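For concreteness, we quote verbatim a single protein encoded this way:
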Amino acid sequence: MKAVILASGIGSRLMPLTKEVPKCLLTINSKTILESELEMLTSCGIDKVIITTGHLHSKVEDHLSNHYAGLAVTLVENKQYASTNYIYSLWLAKDFIDEDIILLHGDMVFDTLLLEKLIQSSFDNGVLVNEEVPPPEKDFKALVDGKLVKKIGVEVTGRNAFFCAPVYKVSLNAFSKWMAEIDRFVAQGNSTCYAEDALNNLLGDIELRATFYDKEFCMEIDTIQDLATAREYYAQHQHKLS
């Protein structure tokens, strides 16, 4: 199993912090977000990682060479990061994905237990879902029927719409189908949407199951307030990102 970390974006809502530092290299509890993610992945036995970059690519590259020289990391640079979304970054990485993957955004902070729960789940394709917290307005929601995810998006609403953290387990077979749909999007010039928009077209064919959680910490760092919230949480609970 490989991991794919999507870390190409500008992080505009975190300006001015991300003017000189890519979002994935912002620190929480003395570790960068990227360091936290890589340590969680390696602790779960995943030592092959693909990272898509864009904004401040060289800083990510330098950071990895200085701290993770022994890790099998493949960098895939999206030079069109300013005019595309991560659907295009994922499309650029397709030739490096030849086995089942863990796919996550490069701005996720969460408990290692959640990654373990996702990897150890009995189904081939899964995503983290929390049905206990109020669905956040700015983040992904999943429309869930039983345990089957029927749709993912920021605008998803309804009684069965729950917070969806973009941390996925995806089989190679499902990823191949997803990539074929992304190919179609890119060929049509549609590279500014979410990769989940392509995935949604396949959820009648691909069984994507919710890996439910409730008490474990998990959030996406999109804004300065998000960053402050995460830092406060780890300071108060004396956790270490690992």
Remarks:
- The first helix runs from residue 33 to 43.
- Residues 2-237 form a domain with the Spore Coat Polysaccharide Biosynthesis Protein SpsA; Chain A fold (CATH 3.90.550.10).
- Helices lie at 33-43, 57-67, 86-92, 112-120, 172-187, 195-200, 224-237.
- The chain has seven helices and 13 strands.
